[in-house]
Amino acid sequence: MKHAIAMHGWCSDSNFWLHWKKNFQLNGWNWENAERGYGNRKASMPIWLDYEKQKNHYQRVVFCHSLGIHLISSQILNDATEIVLLNSFSNFISTNRESRALKVALHGMKTQLGTKNERNMLLSFLEKTNRPHKFPDLLPGPLQQELSSQGRKRLQFDLELLINSSGLPIGIPTTARVLVIDGEKDEIILSGTKNDLIKNLKKHLLAPPCHWTIKGEGHSIHLPKTIASVRAWLE
Prior knowledge:
Elements: E1 2-7, H1 18-26, E2 30-33, H2 51-54, E3 59-65, H3 68-71, H4 74-78, E4 82-86, H5 97-112, H6 118-130, H7 149-164, E5 177-183, H8 191-204, E6 210-214, H9 224-234
Parallel strand pairs: 1-2, 1-3, 3-4, 4-5, 5-6
Helix pairs in contact: 1-9, 5-7
């Protein structure tokens, strides 16, 4: 069995994986999305299927985008055979001067949640995550609806989680094969932060992670060629 569980990032939802899910399902994969429920989608966390019965013939792959590595259940991570990380991080804010300025900006974003400036702030963030692609090409997400009151609380909680992230999340098995994918034109994750993730994974894993940098991609990664390459790497 080939089973994938995917976790989106901050201010996104499971629509992020539309192109990925379609490609993998057409090639015989069972694909499930986790959901934080910022908008009108119900929060959910899938589980691995029939794990004990198929343990020795069961490929269990976790996909995480950005903050998703810190949002996915540690139980799901713990049983993964492979992990694919798209523009992810262990600690979002490092100790250099540039990152200190970033921390100030993030706290500014936090204060705008729940105010009249909320929507413009979130739209500005999403436009930045979508570059270099045009903003109207953005996949459907929670801002196509109204944020629910519970969803806003999760958004605030998860932003705090992002600000305070300080290392790899609990649950990553040392035996997992890990593929790290970075967008060359990512405007969200600083290069030093990306380097920290690779260093932390090398210390944690028995085998070093595979690391790709995709030309022409930013923070969101949806190019069909990249999706097909990831599936080939897994298979």
